[in-house]
Amino acid sequence: MFKKKNKEAKIKNPRFQTFRDAYSVTKSVKPWIGIALVVIFLLVLIIGITLGFTLGHPVYGGFVTIPLAALATMFFFTRIAGTAAYASIEGQIGAGASVLMAIRKGWTTTPAVAVNRQQDMVHRSVGRAGIVITGEGGHAVQQMMQDEKKKAERFAPGVPVIEVLVGDGPGQVSIRKLQKHVTKLPKKLSAHQMREVRARLKAVGGMSMPIPRGPLPKGTKLR
Question: Of 15, 53, 58, 95, which sees the most CB atoms within 10 A?
Fold first, then answer.
């Protein structure tokens, strides 16, 4: 009976589960996060109470400051958690696919449509901007991207095909900026055209590859 209640509670509190997962990932990357959150909360609270004493209403000052302290703490946590989420998957195989698949609105990503022995890989995303070919790996991945671009152009002629190479070098897009870079691409297709392109490329398929797991920002921020 108790086990049933616990399961129901977990189902009814998905936000708490998400927060707990995000905190676990953040703590594994930044062990000091717990202390930092407590310090920020207390610091804002102390400032509020001090102002309350100055105005002659310390209790009222503390009462008003509590939600402000909680808000400041959560804002700090979301910023740090976003950085930690990317850091936890950076350098892993399929990290780029994990980031692209976290874009839930307007984009569909097929991970690892091409992979070689060195574990370089190419992902294909379809959205209103057209077809985005994203590559992760060494020098060989550029040729793989060209091959996938030609394949996409053959199955969806006339549709814009954008190439994105993940990395920190010149002309590359870092894993932390990948999601924002893709979502900011100018729209070239109508919703109907986008659905048609998706249907055409669905037949091309992809490969089944392991994708890093963990809470990733929705858009570019953790809610």
Answer: 95
Asked if 96 and 136 count as a contact pair (C-beta separation under 8 A), the reply is yes
28-38: pLDDT as tens digits: 778 888 899 99
pLDDT digits (tens, 9 = 90+) for 150-182: 999 998 899 999 999 998 888 899 888 898 999
| CA gap 127, 84 in Å, rounded | 27
Q: Tell me 168's DSSP state.
A: S
Residue 197 and residue 137 in one domain: yes
173 phi-psi bin (left φ>0, alpha ψ -120 to 50, beta other): beta
| Strands in the chain per DSSP E | 108-115, 121-127, 130-136, 161-165
- CA nearest neighbour of 131 among 194, 177, 179: 194
pLDDT, residue 8, reads 46
Q: Is the pLDDT of residue 102 over 60?
A: yes
CA 175, distance to chain mean position in Å, is: 9
Closest CA to 97 of 33, 164, 160, 35: 164
Last residue of a domain, one of 65, 89, 113: 89
114 lies in the same domain as 72? no
With a cut of 80, say whether residue 116 has pLDDT above it: yes
